[in-house]
Recover the amino acids of this structure.
């Protein structure tokens, strides 16, 4: 019984500890595994520091059993730090997608082999009252370009993962990212 | 948590399974990559009327677990390599006093401090005979958070059924990986309750076994006087320093397991019916091995897999049976040859055994396993 995956995505989210990188990975995986009923694995890596050190979340989404929970070549790379961008950009898969927070990442000239979109996520989150929500803005931005998980599932996962009392604020941040992406797509 | 789907880390799934099994005592000392089990137990145990204690070290942790279990609570600890080494002496005490409990080793790469945050499967032989003296042990493994949940339930049940510390030999990747875990409703989880004697206090002997060689325990505070010691002891639990009593005791510790291997040993066969080459895998290595199997089948190689859930006692009979059917076994493990030696022993020259070794710090790429399959 050989089942070849029809759906297979490798997503790397990279940034610094404290930005919500790990939470993003967990929410993305949960949206896929619990609400979209596909398979998802999520692993994380970080240094010894609780905040400020480089960290990354790796999520695999597939319609078959995931044999290897680590990302080889991201089909989606979300970079929220210069270091996260630099250390992952060369491994991005041909035809893959790069999403950056333009307030935090200065890009080299984008290569043609992947799609590249950026959003001032930190500034948008700051204007909404909390810079800490930049990670959620990035998720909304991603959802506007990719169907790796359904938007409804992602919102559900955000709703039950963020601290109680901040759900609405976070969903607004998600919408802000989504809208920005939708406009960029049209324009 | 019951009756629902969760997207949780392996370590958290292990803790939740302990709670679901009725575990109400945890003593431990934090260590990467097992800390999340302790954290979860610290949060959850008070919610269910249990007790969590952070001890001064792993020696004390293991001692506290044995004491709590004698006191009537299902008990657990969780650690990794360096802590596992420190627990060895008291694991032996648990074996000889016959104390039901569960010890989780979320393996990281050693020896010594090694790679604290990265995986290995290097403690499999230490699990077998890491404590001194001759004894039998039960050790289980898991390749996913869901399996870790399931084997944790099994570990508690086996520990109560056979009265001994049961080891869960998982690893950093399974422990730290987050994946979907289905927690069944409590009425669907089979629990093996503590074997409590039906005899009155004046007739009860703490080491007088039932027919299956396991002695029932007592409810503490119910009027029974018991004696339990690390010294070789008779049916009363009193020390007797002699060869015949030693033989009686060791016979029982060994044969209560050996006579029940069919009940204890669990494995899964995948496409073994027509297989000429069989990958024998356990723990995290099952996952890349599954991929290697699929790639091999695509190339027309008749490849199958034997997935070991129970590591100790070893699935001897199954390996012996398969050895007469296949050309060879491929054993990927994140060490330089431990379980592969058991496979080689059991195949007794009837089939070749190829070890695919890894020093630790990462898991196998499926292609590394495929190459060995192709070589056979």
């Amino acid at each position: 019984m050989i089942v070849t995956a029809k759906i297979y995505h490798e997503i790397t989210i990279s940034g610094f500890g404290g930005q919500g990188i790990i939470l993003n990975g967990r929410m993305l995986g949960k949206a896929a595994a619990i609400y979209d009923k596909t398979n998802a694995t999520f692993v994380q890596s970080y240094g010894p520091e609780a905040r400020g050190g480089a960290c990354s979340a790796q999520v695999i989404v597939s319609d078959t059993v995931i044999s290897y929970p680590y990302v080889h070549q991201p089909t989606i790379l979300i970079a929220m730090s210069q270091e996260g961008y630099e250390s992952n950009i060369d491994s991005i898969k041909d035809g893959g997608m790069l999403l950056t927070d333009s307030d935090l990442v200065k890009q080299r000239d984008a290569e043609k082999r992947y799609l590249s979109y950026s959003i001032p996520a930190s500034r948008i989150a700051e204007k909404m009252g909390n810079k800490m929500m930049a990670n959620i803005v990035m998720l909304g931005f991603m959802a506007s370009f990719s169907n790796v998980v359904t938007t409804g599932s992602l919102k559900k996962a955000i709703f039950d993962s963020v601290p109680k009392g901040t759900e609405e604020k976070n969903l607004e941040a998600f919408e802000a990212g989504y809208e920005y992406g939708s406009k960029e797509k049209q324009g | 948590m019951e009756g629902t789907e969760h997207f949780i880390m392996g370590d958290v799934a292990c803790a939740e399974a302990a709670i679901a099994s009725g575990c109400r005592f945890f003593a431990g000392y934090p260590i990467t990559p097992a800390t999340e089990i302790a954290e979860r137990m610290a949060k959850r145990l008070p919610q269910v009327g249990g007790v969590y204690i952070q001890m001064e070290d792993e020696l004390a942790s293991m001692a506290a677990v044995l004491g709590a279990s004698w006191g009537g609570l299902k008990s657990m600890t969780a650690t990794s390599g360096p802590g596992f080494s420190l627990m060895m002496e008291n694991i032996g005490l648990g074996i000889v006093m016959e104390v039901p409990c569960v010890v989780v080793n979320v393996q990281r790469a050693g020896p010594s401090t090694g790679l604290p945050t990265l995986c290995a499967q290097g403690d499999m032989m230490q699990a077998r005979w890491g404590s001194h003296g001759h004894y039998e042990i039960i050790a289980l493994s898991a390749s996913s958070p869901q399996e870790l949940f399931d084997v944790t339930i099994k570990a508690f049940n086996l520990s109560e059924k056979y009265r001994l510390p049961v080891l869960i030999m998982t690893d950093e990747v399974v422990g730290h990986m987050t994946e979907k875990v289905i927690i069944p409703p409590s009425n669907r989880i089979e629990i093996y309750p503590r074997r409590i004697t039906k005899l009155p206090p004046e007739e009860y002997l703490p080491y007088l076994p039932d027919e299956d060689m396991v002695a029932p325990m007592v409810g503490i505070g119910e009027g029974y006087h018991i004696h339990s010691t690390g010294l070789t002891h008779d049916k009363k639990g009193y020390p007797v320093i002699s060869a015949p009593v030693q033989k009686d005791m060791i016979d029982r510790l060994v044969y209560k397991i050996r006579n029940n291997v069919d009940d204890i040993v669990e494995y899964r066969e995948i496409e073994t019916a027509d297989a000429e080459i069989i990958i024998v895998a356990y723990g995290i290595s099952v996952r890349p091995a599954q991929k290697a199997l699929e790639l091999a089948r695509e190339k027309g190689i008749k490849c199958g897999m034997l997935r070991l859930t129970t590591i100790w006692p070893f699935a001897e009979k199954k390996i012996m049976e398969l050895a007469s059917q296949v050309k060879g076994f491929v054993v990927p493990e994140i060490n330089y040859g431990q379980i592969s030696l058991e496979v080689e022993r059991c195949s007794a020259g009837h089939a070749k055994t190829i070890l695919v070794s890894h020093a630790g710090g990462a898991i196998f790429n499926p292609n590394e396993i495929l190459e060995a399959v192709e070589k056979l």
About this structure: Chain B touches chain A through 21 residues (CB under 8 Å).
